[in-house]
Amino acid sequence: MSLGESERIIPKHIGIIMDGNGRWAKLRGLPRSAGHRAGAVTFKEITRYANKIGVKCLTVYAFSSENWRRPEKEVKYIMSLFKSYLKDAVNYADENIKTRFIGDRSVLDKDLQDLMEYNENLSKDATGMVLNIAINYGGRQEILRAAERVLEKGLSLTEENLTANMDTENFSEVDLIIRPSGEERISNFLLWQSAYAELVFSDILWPDFKPEDLDAAIDEFSRRNRRFGGV
Fold it and tell me: Active site includes 19?
């Protein structure tokens, strides 16, 4: 049963593991590339909807540091989709979404890095939702990067200093992590930030994930009693 507007609590920061593109394609007798293409369409729809309903920050797992192990042809296609998205994103600048990229971008092609920087600069003054796109991202690697930043600044390794130097910066606490596709693990995603996140898993493959499915996950989040270690 869906909750009413007065009962629903919109999470400040939502993380989504966009999983199931390959299986979606296989079920339809299509190449995996078709699944990634359909997943990209879903990503755009869900991003706009999250901004519309008042989510302050959305972090999506686009490409993990482990995804390089996939077949070279598939990786190249994913990167070409990413490049197309970056080129197209300039057409949506009026949606007031601040786009950022988290992860190690140093190993990406120079043209991708330039487009990422361009999109960040283009949207830097947006006052709506912050969209973090995690590319070549791993939670363990991010914690190491944060520790290196802290030490480079001559600071002590405290919880507060690490939090302030995470890739997610001002949105380091995640309220809700959603993983469609039937898998029930977080796969090295936002490990530090999700210490007290609520986890919602569903059997829906990512290309089939709709705004009403996001609403359902938020309803489930709203029903939870978040005690943060208390009673």
Answer: yes
Residue 134 · residue 63 · CB < 8 Å? yes
Q: Which has the higher per-residue pLDDT, 6 or 182? A: 182
Q: Is 188 a catalytic residue?
A: no
Q: Is residue 2 part of a domain?
A: no
Q: Residue 73 maps to which CATH number?
A: 3.40.1180.10
> How far apart, in whole angstroms, are the C-alpha atoms of residue 189 and residue 15?
9
- Residue 226 is predicted with a pLDDT of 72
192 in any annotated domain: yes
**Domain count for the chain:** 1
pLDDT in tens, 87-111: 988 777 789 999 999 999 999 999 9
Query: Could you list the residue range(s) of the whole structural domain that residue 49 is in?
Result: 13-221
Q: How confident is the model at residue 228 (pLDDT cuts 50, 70, 90)?
A: low
Residue 134's DSSP bridge partners are: 61, 102
Asked if 36 and 77 count as a contact pair (C-beta separation under 8 A), the reply is: yes
- 179 occurs within a structural domain: yes
Name the catalytic one among 19, 167, 175, 213.
19
Q: Looking at 67, 161, 188, 219, which residue is catalytic?
A: 67
